[in-house]
What does this fold into?
Amino acid sequence: MLEQSPSSSLLKEIRENYTSFKLEWQPILQEGDRDILYVSGNPWDEKERDFRDKYDRPVMTFDELSPYINQLVNDPRQNKRSIKINPRGAGATDTTAQLREDKLREAQYNSRAQSAFTTAFQGAAERSYGWFGINSRLVADGLTEEQYAELVKESPEKLFEQELYFYRIPNPNSVLPNPCFREQDASDMTECCKAIMRSKLPVGRKIKAFASLRITKRLSRRKNYICSMA
It folds into this structure.
């Protein structure tokens, strides 16, 4: 059992990774926050704004960014993106690639993946980076009480079946990948930290929970495929 203490080697590694990653990405995160201020119509320096308010001077703001951002973001909203799988040798065929693509399409539909895709794209348009997440969950988690009771009665073995789902990450600053990757698409990245705000009951205070995700390549021994967004 994992020892939940500050001296735990795993917790120590997670905290050290988070601190290191945040230090490396801090300049980009600060520029991203500055971009959001301009996008939201607040380009003025705080001291300059206070000075103008104090002496009753005008603080004028012209929305020159929203039309271009909306024009860019509306394209993926109208033309839905989906994952395309192509076979790449080693016994992979068009039929098996189509089957995998159908399963992914089902997962995207069940988890409303288009919302996750457009949120990530809008973050990239507004502040140069955006994220969405992919995880697994129990199929029974999404059932109503009646459906769950029926599943327990008829097919209890399916209670432990899992499915993939896509989810939104509204705050791009909560994701900190390992900055030591060398590939342009960061496909060789080994760690990524994600900060999650949770309620600490019953006081209601906010705490940060950190998780280190180890990303590894899992390639089939016999069949290889290439995934892309189309």
Notes: The first strand starts at residue 83 and ends at 87. Residues 178 and 184 are 13 Å apart (CA to CA).
